[in-house]
Amino acid sequence: QRHQPEQAVPYLERALQLKEGIADRRGTGVVYNHLGVVAFRQGDTVTAEAHLTQALEIFEAIGAPYRVGLAYANLGLVRLAQGKYTQAHDCFERAIAIMESIGDELSVSVCLTNQGLVALCELDRDRARDLFREARRLIQRAGSSFGRSEVLSNLAFVAAWDGEFDAAERILRELLAEDLPPHDAATALATLGAILTVVGRNDEAVMSLARATDAAEETRNLDLLRFCHANTALYAAATGQDALFEATTTLVAREG
Predict the structure, then answer these.
(1) How many angstroms separate the CA atoms of 132 and 105, rounded?
(2) Mean pLDDT of the residues in the chain
(3) CA distances from 245 to 46, 189, 227, 250 (A)
(4) What CA dihedral angle connects 244, 249, 254 and 256, to 10 degrees?
(5) How far apart are CA 47 and CA 167, in angstroms?
(6) At CA 94, angle to CA 227 and CA 78, rounded to 5?
(7) Contact 40, 53 (CB under 8 A)
(8) What is the pLDDT, as a whole number, of residue 229?
(9) CA-CA distance, 252 to 110, in Å (whole number)?
(10) d(C-alpha 223, C-alpha 238), whole Å
(11) Cβ burial, residue 36 (10 Å; 0-12/13-18/19+)
């Protein structure tokens, strides 16, 4: 139930009871991992961290490398959302080491993208750019589209940070011409909205941000919705719309 995480919880809790009842440790760990991801999407990072830590302990105990790497990667996202950048970095580094050891380059690319987000939060755009480019290289080498849109959105953000607004817009426009799933569309549209705000194209910016918010609401992913609302707040501040700024910053605060 990708876009209805709250409806998934009762089924997962029942699955957890069944897996624990038959002493299926691997299955129990998988369910804890799913519960952690669902809690994260609902904006509950405390519960997410608890479930993912439980999953990690189980997978380490039974010797399941891929699952250990996945749990570290998910836990890294939680700690990134909590503003625990050093801990997030360490989680992603552990995940990368494991995924490299089993030859899973696509999972490595996802973790590199997330390490790039840590670098952005720490205002290290050069490192972020290098990480995003390496993630893109691995995706291209694998001939996959998995994680591609997020990498390109982030490269566009870095280009805009460098003052290369035309290049950033071109990347995003080309990406949005594709048939993107709601999560990827929301990320690209919100990034484009922020860039258009900075260059003073306010009418286009507000349309892009409205579309981004609609797509984010469809996913019911609070972390993504927070990103869209934060960029809308940037637009409101830039255009002197005090009521919109107050409304969107209130939403961001409420969403954690």
Answers:
(1) 14
(2) 89
(3) 28, 19, 14, 8
(4) 150
(5) 40
(6) 25
(7) no
(8) 85
(9) 25
(10) 23
(11) buried
- Distances from the Cα of 129 to the Cαs of 24, 151, 190, 240, in angstroms? 42, 10, 19, 32
One-letter amino acid at 219 equals T
pLDDT at residue 70, as a whole number:
96
Q: Is the pLDDT of residue 1 over 50?
A: no
pLDDT in tens, 26-60: 999 999 999 999 999 888 999 999 999 999 999 99
